[in-house]
């Protein structure tokens, strides 16, 4: 029996009263290669389900697909892992609202086996952040500018004492991303700093104590351009700051040859896996809203 085009599928009935015919036309395989998971995605799209809408029961879905509830449940759990669905105890499966942090975790885990992830993340972040500061110049609120000024002052204080200010550095860039209102930019900063934190643990050196005041002033110069409303200059200064970070990072990566880890993988690869697949307490997952 041929499957009708989406426009001719029966309308979605209220959950709980969904007819067998409606389920059949919604879920019958359009191709032999299409699996249960993709059929469920098709069901969501063709029935225009929105966040908060409940799916039919596992038993109804299994009957319509002529497969066991276990198979249906595994497909539902796969979609849950992708952040598309959520299970509510005693109630069933629901379409989940989009959550950028869930999407970021999925992206991070897929990046975990990409050997050039740190540098490529930095390249994307540099371009995105440069556009952001150019757009934000002259538009930041006094509280936003005051927060950036305070972070710069803390960097200067630590630099004068030869202390690392990685936490303030990360928060500085996070504040800029947050001010833009772009949640993806904010997550990109978080992912990059999760990777960088792992690199520091594996031996990536923070700026030398003699260079720390210079790097702190680089942040101050970015704030100055933002305050004056000079977007082009803010972007130029930010790119220069990231260029220096990339040079230091590239040199460190080049110094770590394959085989310096017990399993033959590089220390960089090992650190990446830990940062992206399991950030650990206080980093990445579940941190900072």
Profile the largest sheet: 2 strands, antiparallel
- The CATH C-level name of the largest domain is Mainly Alpha
Strand order of the largest sheet: 1-2
Radius of gyration: 25 Å
Briefly note the CATH topology name of the largest domain. Answer: Four Helix Bundle (Hemerythrin (Met), subunit A)
Q: Tell me the name of the CATH homologous superfamily of the largest domain.
A: GntR ligand-binding domain-like
List unreliable stretches of 5+ residues.
Answer: 1-18, 29-34, 258-265, 279-289
Mean pLDDT rating: 76
What is the 3D shape?
elongated
Strands, total number: 2
The end-to-end distance, rounded to whole angstroms, is 50 Å
Give me the strand/helix succession: HHHHEEHHHHHHHH
What structural class do helix, strand and pairing data support? mainly alpha
Tally of individual helices: 12
The percent range for helix content is 55-70%
The CATH architecture name of the largest domain reads Up-down Bundle
Give the tally of structural domains: 2
Strand portion, in percent? Answer: under 5%
């Amino acid at each position: 029996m041929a499957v009708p085009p989406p426009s001719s599928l029966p309308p979605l009935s209220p959950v709980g009263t969904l007819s067998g015919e409606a389920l059949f036309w919604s879920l019958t395989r359009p191709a032999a290669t299409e699996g249960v998971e993709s059929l469920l995605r098709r069901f969501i799209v063709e029935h225009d389900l929105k966040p908060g809408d409940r799916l039919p029961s596992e038993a109804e879905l299994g009957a319509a697909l002529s497969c066991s509830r276990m198979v249906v449940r595994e497909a539902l759990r796969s979609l849950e892992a992708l952040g598309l669905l959520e299970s509510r105890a005693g109630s069933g499966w629901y379409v989940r609202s989009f959550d950028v942090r869930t999407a970021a975790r999925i992206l991070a885990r897929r990046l975990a086996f990409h050997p050039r992830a740190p540098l490529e993340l930095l390249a994307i972040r540099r371009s995105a952040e440069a556009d952001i500061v150019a757009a934000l110049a002259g538009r930041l609120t006094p509280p936003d500018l005051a927060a950036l000024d305070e972070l710069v002052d803390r960097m200067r204080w630590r630099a004068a004492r030869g202390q690392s200010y990685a936490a303030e550095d990360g928060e500085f860039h996070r504040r800029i991303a947050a001010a833009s209102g772009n949640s993806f930019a904010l997550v990109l900063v978080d992912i990059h700093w999760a990777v960088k934190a792992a690199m520091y643990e594996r031996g990536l050196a923070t700026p030398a104590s003699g260079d720390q005041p210079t790097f702190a002033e680089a942040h101050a110069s970015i704030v100055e351009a933002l305050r004056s409303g000079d977007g082009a200059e803010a972007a130029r200064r930010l790119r220069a700051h990231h260029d220096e970070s990339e040079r230091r990072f590239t040199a460190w990566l080049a110094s770590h040859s394959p085989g310096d880890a017990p399993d033959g993988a590089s220390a960089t690869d090992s650190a990446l896996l830990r940062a992206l697949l399991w950030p650990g307490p206080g980093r990445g997952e579940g941190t900072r809203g």
